[in-house]
Structure formats: C-alpha cells, structure tokens
Amino acid sequence: MSTEKTTTDQTPPPAVEQAIDPRLLVREEGFKGYWTEFKRKLRGGELGSLPVIIGLIIIWAIFGVKGTNFLTADNISAVLYYMCGIGTLAIGLVFVLLLGEIDLAVGSVSGLAAAIFAVLSVSHGVNIWLAAVLTLITGIAIGSLHGWIFAKIGVPAFVVTLAGFLGWQGLMLWILGSTGTINLPDTGVIHLLGGNSFFMGGDIAGGYILAIVATVAVALSQLNEQRRRRAAKVLFRPTSEIALRTALVAVVSFLAAYVLNQSKGVPNVLVLFLILLIVCDFVLRRTSYGRKVFAVGGNIEASRRAGISVPMIRISVYAISGFFAALGGLIIAAQISSANQGGSDPNNLMLAIASAVIGGTSLFGGRGRVWSALLGVLVIQSIKTGLDNLGLQLSIQYMITGAVLLAAVIIDSLSRQTQKSSGRA
User: In sequence order, what are the beta bridge partners of 340?
Assistant: First the structure.
C-alpha cells in the first residue's frame, strides 16, 4: 500500500492591503488631516451645519449693510430673546423628526398650555408655580396620547397630530371663553421667562460668568472624553484640537456676553433655552435612549431585531415633543404677557418645523442634532427681525422664509443622494 506525502505550500499569502480609517490619518496629520477629512466629507455629501452657518453669515451681512441698525446690541438682544419660544418648540420637533415623523399639533398644544396656565393661575388662583407644573404635565400627557395612538393603534402620525392640531385649538378657544384673552401678571414663572428678567439682574458680570462657565465646561468635558478614550485605547482628540475648540467657544461666549451687556444683559429665558439644548444634546448623543432614537429613525426593522421597543420609543418621543410644546407656550405667553387666541397661531408650528429643518435635521429621519433648533431658529428670527426693520410687508417675510426652508430641504435631499452614491448612506 503506497502512501503519498502531502506537502503544504509554505509560501506566505500576499499581503492584503488594509483600508485605513480616515480618522487615523486625521490624528496623525494634525490640522492638515482635518482639512483633508473636511474635504472628504464635502465630497461625500456630509455637509453638517455648514450650509446654515454660511447662510446665517450672509443674512447678517446683508441686513448689516442695509443701515437698519440690525447689528446693534439692542437688536441682537431682541433676536436672541424672541427666538426662544419658537426654538423651544423646535427642540421637541427635533426628537420627532429624528424618527422620520412629524408633529403638527405642537402649535395648538403650546396655545392650549398657555390657556390652561392662565385659567389655573389667574381665574382660579392656583399657585403660579404649581400651575406651570400642571401645564407641563398636560403637555406630556397630550404628546403621549398622540404617540400611543400612532404606535399602538397604527394611525399615521400625520393624521393623529393633524387631528390634534384642530382639536386642541378648539379646546383652547373654549377654555379662554368669550373674551379670548387672559392677561398674565409679571410674577413668578412669567417674570422668569419674560423680557424684564435677566441673569443676575442684568449685572454686567453675569454674562461674563456664563461665558467662563461655558468655556471651562467645554474644556473639561473634552479633556475627560480624551482621558476615557485614551484609557480604552480608541481614537481620541489631540490636545491641540481641544485647545482650538475651547478657544472658539470662548470667543463666541465672551463676544455674546459683551454684546448683550451693551443692552440689558443676558435674558433668563435665553439661559434656560441654552441649558435645554445642552441637556437634550447629552441625552441624544451620550445615552442609550438617544442611540435608540437614532436607530429607530434609521431602520425600524433592524431596531426591532436588536430588541428595541419601537412603540415605547415613539410614545416617549411624542411625550417629549408635548413637553416642549407646553414649555414653549409658556415662553410665548410670557413674551406677550397674556394667553390669547394667537397662542396657537399656525405660523408658530410652521416656523418651528422650519427651524428644525433649516438647522440641519433631516426630514427623512435618523440624522440631525438638537443644536439644529438653535441654528434654524436663529436664521428664522434674524430674517423676521431684519425684514421688520426694513419695513417690508408680512407677505414678503413669509415668501422669503418659505424659500429658505425649501432651500434647506433641497440641500438635505441632495446631500442624501450624494451620500448614497458614495456608499455612506
């Protein structure tokens, strides 16, 4: 019986060229690497907030050279103050839009919230802070109801919230009664959110204290993240980048503090709005709940298979939207010192949606940041204030705002197509 000796080829296989993570090149090449990464993202359609930042610079430049006093401290302070009401509505809408859904009821819910607060605190003498808490709970309950009908019964969110838009507006009119207006005293929560309330009473030190806190918080947060990622032996930002980011935050913060101090100081409602943005950004980017929201918005079926409760995410997102709608209603009521039929103005809904979309949140779901609400509403309020200063009719304002919204959606659509063609979507 013969046996054959088997031999194995000892020649090593040819080396396989491994793809290099572009982020590694960024870290190795320093600022040159960041520029290369920036160009790569542009070619791939990952525009981020770049279009809205460029648009905002152009808008401010146009109104600034028109000689309308647009860049004065008082005018900039007014822009930052009046953007907070619509901006708060937009924060809640960002959560909904991340699922690829819509909430058409936020305008009516905000008006209803103001009416409920006014009736409780003024007509029935309920403690003003208790009335505010009950109002916010009502907003959460209404949002949860919308989400439950959508997630459990299967009625499209568009239909559910459209019905809410009509129904809650009718309830608001019924609550306000024949007069249609309830004036609010400048006390308690209304004073806190109103135009006569400033951080540290408008003391010039207040704005600079906030700027210092913001700068230190950003630096410590990024250094802590660098430490954790270094310990885990994964990619981390170099100290030079952290220093640059911190410097940029410092410049913006101290410049804003200086400008606002030239007027009356930093409005309390602006501080609250920024705190809400920071908290919501942390929730979306740093918690498992936030990752689940992005997952459901990106791919529902994959989320189900991963064990995510899609109905609960949907219900919770609409509850969050209801909360911010109610809070936005209180802010708007504080700005006009009354709860009236204009509280559920459909334009508030349209402007809130426009703010979230213009700021960079995708209508197709799964992409966006809560800071979109800030950037978008800043664009919207800048356009409105600038056109008011020019004395243009309301019709012109609507047409220009609509054109800006359409441009934002077109950019978003083109960006998605570019990412698909480059294999990144």
Answer: 181
